[in-house]
Amino acid sequence: MIGVVLLILSWLLDGVGFVVRLLIVAAVVEEVTGNRLLAVALGTLAAWWPGLAAFSALAGVPGGAGLTRLELRARSPSHREQGIVDRTLAELLRPGMRGPSLWYVIDVPRAGAYVVGTTLYIERGLIWSSGFPALLAHALRHLHSLDGRLVLASRRLVFPGMLWVMAKVAANAASGARRVEYGRMMLVLLLALVAGGLGLFLLSPGWAWYWRRREYVADAYAAELGYGQTLAAVLAQQVIEDYTLLLLWGRMSPPSERRVDRLLGVREGADRS
């Protein structure tokens, strides 16, 4: 429920951007076509589009496999990967739980799994690791809650493709001098004013707080299935960051050591790995 409230507040705080998009698109369309009625119609659609797309994702309309796949540079699984993932999903899914509508592989050596909407993204390094069942169980908890839908809804508060642009600008800002960093962050906020997402960025601290707690919930679920020790061992060896959303302040994932501490303190069944 807290995530839904944050999404609504993020959308409402984008009210200025709503007006800006309406005026810019309407002005451009009228200049090009000379048709004021068409200009108002397209301007209104541009103004409302991020909100409509976001709340359709929250309502459960399948998604997360289109532009997100391109941005994450994901591909369809190979025959071997398909077999491993299908078998592991069959072992982990419980009655009443739904699996991903689609899943793709991100060709990197890292070992992470992320849920966007109803789509699962698995980094190639994870599939061939001993910690795969533990991290997949963690991801399935996100999938079986509002988490995946909230991630997709938050992404859709920004016009298609612009979140990727903003992420690149923000990444360059983090590697520059303080004055350059400040200037680039202001550029991200200016882009958000036009392309959507201003409220999402202004509420970044609240979103970071929310997502860190959801990570703990997903960790606890993996522990309940008997994979707590395995997940703790994986987290002790590497830092797994969720980069499916852009937050200007704060991180979506808690420090790995904090997660390890909690996992080792969770009462769980016999570890299966």
Q: Can you describe this structure?
A:
- It is a single chain.
- With 273 residues, the protein is mainly α.
- It has helices spanning 2-12, 15-33, 36-58, 67-72, 79-92, 124-127, 132-143, 147-156, 162-174, 178-195, 198-202, 204-224, 228-237, 256-265; strands spanning 74-75, 102-106, 113-116, 119-123.
- Strands 1-2-4-3 form a 4-stranded mixed beta sheet.
- β3 and β4 form a beta hairpin.
- α1 (2-12) packs parallel to α8 (147-156) and α2 (15-33) runs antiparallel to α3.
- The two termini are 34 Å apart.
Helix content: 55-70%
Low-confidence stretches: none
Strand order of the largest sheet: 1-2-4-3
Oligomer type: single chain
Largest sheet: 4 strands, mixed
Radius of gyration: 20 Å
State the total count of DSSP E strands: 4
Structural class estimated from helices and strands: mainly alpha
SSE arrangement, N to C: HHHHEHEEEHHHHHHHHH
Shape: elongated
Quote the beta fraction. Answer: 5-15%
How many separate helices? 14
Distance between the termini: 34 Å
Mean pLDDT: 86
Transmembrane segments: 37-61, 187-210
InterPro entries: Peptidase_M48
Organism: Kouleothrix aurantiaca
Domain Peptidase M48: 109-264
